[in-house]
Amino acid sequence: METLRSFLHDLRRGRRQATLRTMVQSGFALFCFYAGYRFYRFYLWGTGRSEVYVPRPPSVEGFLPISALVGLKRFVLTGDYDMIHPAGLTIFLAALAIGFFLRKGFCGWICPVGFVSNLAEKVGRRFRILWQPPVWLDVPLLSLKYMLLGLFAYLVVWQMDLRQIEAFHNSPYNLAVDAKMLVFFLSPSGLAAGVMIFLTAISFVIRNFWCRYLCPYGALLGLLAMAGPLQIRRDRAACIDCKKCEKTCPASIRITRKETVRTNECVGCTQCTAVCPVKDCLTVTGPDHLKVPTLLLPAAVVGLFLLFYLLALTAGIWYTEVTPQSMKQFYMLLAELPHPGV
Ligand code: SF4
Ligand code: SF4
Ligand code: SF4
């Protein structure tokens, strides 16, 4: 009876953490969906297809990682904050800070793409079509996102000098890149549509395909997390090898083969610590083996993200300095705006 009670307790605890994560993720995803809708209406006004003006939500800049990377380099070189896409740079800085201090908590709790990927995985599991690639395939595929990250780092961080950074920053392309991105998804080319359909379809079959193998943003956050202070620690002596932690881990990490999980794949979801039936066997730990309560990590992830937003708002670096009328001028010429590198 006692065993059954403790089993149900562990199950409830694990489910509670998973439910909390789904709630937080869906909250951010719904917000992004709403912001995307508002931006679409701004785009219709900006391209002259609607008379109704709807203010552009700054948060859409979070989907412009290249602009944010260029903005970060410009900020480092000149000390000038990117006032064309300030929210984009703020969100990028928040993700980097979370990545370093709180593992890949941005991926685990905030990013809407990760959430959609998790939903696809659940559907795949329900229909029993999920497939785990064997190690000989998994390992080379894992390297792809680092290659993409290396490519972007080479092109932006290494290759672009300040003159090129300023040219990109002030280019009409950068001013209208949010609308360019929207058009890319609304009216994709045949190739882009094919790639999107492939990525969507394969996400039902291979768990987190985009996040695990291809996303350079997640790769960067993973590298930061490896250098950060938090880790998942397993007490080898206390572990009863039930493998519940591994079964629940969304990143397919072989937790029972390690004493500490510092891998760049860990998204800090804390589902493993919540589901572990042995008290203090699997814990989130900081420096000097300091134990971090399971709920503190997600609270800190969301709190740090909101802190960056509030600081940017207070410092006047959340809203763009580009007026809606100026944006409209560039949106009207959208199809003619070349990439600065072309
Ligand atoms: S890996 Fe990329 S897409 Fe996936 S959750 Fe992280 S940042 Fe988002
Ligand atoms: S190791 Fe634990 S915290 Fe990290 S991704 Fe897996 S379940 Fe989540
Ligand atoms: S760490 Fe906990 S959940 Fe994982 S195998 Fe050991 S006892 Fe089971």
What does this structure look like?
- The chain is mostly helical and 342 residues long.
- It has one domain.
- Helix content is 62%, strand content 4%.
- It has 17 helices and four strands.
- It has a four-stranded antiparallel beta sheet.
- Helix 2 (65-78) packs across helix 3 and helix 3 crosses helix 13 (216-227).
- Bound molecules: iron/sulfur cluster (3 copies).
Low-confidence parts, pLDDT < 50 over ≥5 residues?
Answer: none
Give the overall silhouette: globular
Small molecules bound in the structure, each named once:
iron/sulfur cluster
Please provide the count of β strands: 4
Question: Key terms for this structure?
Answer:
single chain; 342 residues; mainly alpha; four-stranded antiparallel beta sheet; 17 helices; 4 strands; 4% strand; globular; binds iron/sulfur cluster
